[in-house]
Structure formats: structure tokens, C-alpha cells
Amino acid sequence: MSEEIDGRGWPLLDWAPAPAPEVVARGIRSAGGRVTFACFMEMALTHPAVGYYTQARSPLGAAGDFITVPQRVPFFNRVLGRLLAELLGGAAALPTAGGEARLVEVGAGEGHMAAGLLDFFEDEAPALKEILRCQLVEPGSYLREAQRARLAQAQSRSWRVEWPQVGQSPASGHDARAELLPPGGPGVVVTNELLDALPVHLLHVGDEVPLEAWVQLQEGESGPEVAVVWREPCAAASAELQAVLEQTGRPDPRSLSRDGFIELRPAVGDFLEGAARRLGAGFVVTIDYGAWRGHPYSAASTEARPADAWTDGREPADTQAGTCRPQLHELTLRGYFRHERRFDPLSHAGRQDLTADVDFAALDFHGRRLGFQTLLFLDLASFLAAGGAATEADRLRSLVGGEDALEVDASASLLEALLDPADVGGLFKVMVQVREEADL
Ligand SMILES: C[S@@+](CC[C@H](N)C(=O)[O-])C[C@H]1O[C@@H](n2cnc3c(N)ncnc32)[C@H](O)[C@@H]1O
Question: Which residue has its alpha carbon closest to ligand 1 atom 22?
Fold first, then answer.
């Protein structure tokens, strides 16, 4: 059965064998010659020696592979700041908080969001300075140093900013999950474009027996190569599949997917488990691209998707009438290299970004299991509109005739795209989960 899939490839994805960097090859050998694709993705992104995010250059910006909203749209940081100020006030009031408000940003890139948030707090919520402890978690020293440089000004204005040590996983040296968050009391964990980088397990569920994509070493013409083979799912993927089947009430995995393939994210559960352990009570705020996809995670929880208090009940674009239906799974794994999409996930390990859309239903699914409630889920367009972004776009447009006309024009166009539910504003989502119990 697996031989039929081997070599057949994945619709849209090119599984051609690719040269393995020595460190990745060593990692695969030490795991017995084969690792899951999820483990390969984790190594390719965050291995301390060769990881895409841990190397001595920034992947962000015009010279990198992508740009992010906090980096390009300061107004976004201010709208988010207003929400976070409220949540931090709530967390600090909890009896276990000792009057402290802890804000943990995981995967803070070059520190644009944290710096923007502290600027906003300086202007609009200065009382937070007495109680706020801002902690940034970042696997790579290059990006950590970029964050230190960007946050120096806030520190000089007496905002408390820390870079705590976090645990390490055997696969990558950096565990994005259970050990990722620093110990401490209640607070708010916030991420922008982190969860799409957490490892996905790729399963074929189109036949009677589910199979997982594994990456193994083979001898190529010029040294060791990585190649995909389809084998029995690993323990983590099997447990996740089982939990999903129980949750959705569909005993047959074949019913989960249109094309026979699914992406499973036990790492999202590990991440939330870390948040529950490290915060006890508090909030998790997730901003990322993706959707409340429906299958494989949410035949049941699609109906449980929360109403959006910030949008007067208006539905986010992907769940508006007519499109609100459980979607069968579709492939979202892809790479980015110099702002171009790529579909050859094995090639250029450590040099191309690997990412898969976040299934917000998976966040809700794991959250409920761990005592979180989903408070808010909406698209970025609605979030920004509720924060007054249309007025800001008009303000920017009114400046277009001035000195920095080109830059202002670009900023106004970007903000307009973020306000458009049919554009980037609909692709990105904002989700807030709350946990009230102090213990896991
Ligand atoms: C796409 S960048 C986003 C950066 C920043 N949040 C922003 O919006 O500009 C992804 C960030 O997540 C970090 N990251 C990726 N995988 C991670 C992991 N497993 N654990 C912790 N951070 C990770 C990267 O180093 C990087 O800082």
C-alpha cells in the first residue's frame, strides 16, 4: 500500500529527493534513519545550527523572504495594544498574579510588534509600566539581538523587557511547545505568524490504513539525500487522529479529506498545554493566516465558533452565509523563498521557509481540552475596522501629496488591503482564548 503512494507525489507538492545538509542528515541517522515530515520541518526551521529561523540573517523584510503586518503597519500594533491592555488588566487582577501583568510574545521576529505595543502603552496605558513584565521568546540569537536593539528605547523609558531561557527539544534544540513558555504567573501569550511555522504531520487517509509522510536518507549522486516514504503514523499523529475522529464523531478517517490527505497539528495542542501550565489562568491571543477550516478538526466545533463581539455580529469572511460549511481538508503546506511560493518542501532545508495555514478549529479543539474558552475569532479586516483603520487609511491618503509621497501611498495601500475581507484582511485571523483555572 505505501509503495503505491511512494513516488506518486502529492497534488501540488513536489517530493523529489533533495540533498540533505549534514546536520539534518545526522539528526535523521540518530533517529534511526527516518523521521516524520513534522520532525524534518522542525529541524529545517529551528535547528540551532541550520534552522531557517536561527541563522545569522533575518528572513523578514524586502531582502528576506516575507514581510509581516507588525513590521509594516504600526497602526495594527496600536489596535492590538488596545485589546492587550484590557486583557493584561484582567490578568493582573487575578488573585494568583501578585499584581503583575505578564505579556509573553513567542516568535517575536525583529521585535516590531513588542516595540509597537510598548509605544502604544506609553501613550495610552502608562499605568501598565508599574506592573508589566514583557517577555520575548525567540529560538535564534540573531533575531534575539535584533529584538534587543529594537526594544532598547522602550527599556530606556523603564519598560521591563526580558528574554527568558526556555526548554529545548531533542529534534531542533528549541521546543516551540510544552517547554517554550517561561515559568511565571497569569498573563497574556501573544503570537503573530508563529503557529503557521509549527510542525505539521502529513497523513494519507484515502485508503483503509492511514499512512504518514516520513523523511528518510538515501544515497544520492553527490552525497546523502532526503526522500519521502509513506509509513504507519507515529504515536503523536496516531493519537491526534484518534482524538479528531472522536471529536468529529466520524469513525472513518477517509471521510475527513477530499483528496485523501490531511495535515495534523499536535504541536498546537502542545503549545496550548505549555500556555496552560505556565500561565495557569490567562489569555492566548493568536494572529495568523488560516481559517476555521472545519475538517479534520471541527465537525462539532464549527457550530461552536464564537460570535464576534467586536464586529456587531458580522461574520468573518470565511464563515459568512453560503461559505460556512465544514470544508474537507485541502493541502496548505508550502515554502517561501525571496517572496515566492515554493512547493518542494524537501529542498533547500534551512534556506526556504516552510509554513501551513493555521486551522483555528484545531486551536479551539485543543483549547477546550485544556480548559480554554474561545472568546473572540474574527478576520483581521474586521479587527482593524473596529479599531478605526478606515479613518487611519483616509488620514494616510490625505498625506500622499507630501514629502514621503511614495512611502505614504504604499502604507495606505497596505492598510486598505488589510481592511479588505477579500484580500489579506480576510486571510488573517485574530483569535482570543481565555483560561480561568489556575491549575492544569
Ligand atoms: C514569520 S516570523 C514572525 C515574526 C514576528 N512575529 C512578526 O510578526 O514580525 C516567525 C517567528 O516565529 C519564530 N519561530 C518559528 N518557529 C518557532 C518555534 N518552534 N519556537 C519559537 N519561535 C519560533 C521565528 O524565529 C520568528 O521569530
Answer: 107
